[in-house]
Amino acid sequence: MRRHLFGIFACAFLVTNHAAATEFTIKMAGASYRPASIKAAVGDTIRFVNDDAAKHNVFVPTAGYALDLGAQEPGQEKVLSVHKVGRFEVECVIHPHMLTVVEVE
Ligand SMILES: [Cu+2]
């Protein structure tokens, strides 16, 4: 299963534990993504931190970037690195109003 997911997402993202050029932090707090947008560069990483008492779910519906990291428990962090210039939206399946926009230059 894990190998299958990496195969699908390899061109736009890497799920990583390694630091890269710039690391952005997007918090899930008050059932919102904070900040609501960032501008990143290819190779940068984005750390999603669940600061809420509820589960969240990093979910990218944008064509060419589609990604679903699954449930993210309170206190849990997930880190992505971006490898494709463009713009994508990050939503949460559990809270459909949650949105942050990532521009990759
Ligand atoms: Cu959520």
UniProtKB/TrEMBL annotation:
InterPro entries: Cupredoxin, EfeO_Cupredoxin
Signal peptide: 1-21
Keywords for this protein: Signal
Spans traversing the lipid bilayer: none
Span of domain EfeO-type cupredoxin-like: 10-97
Protein name: Cupredoxin domain-containing protein
Source species: Sinorhizobium numidicum
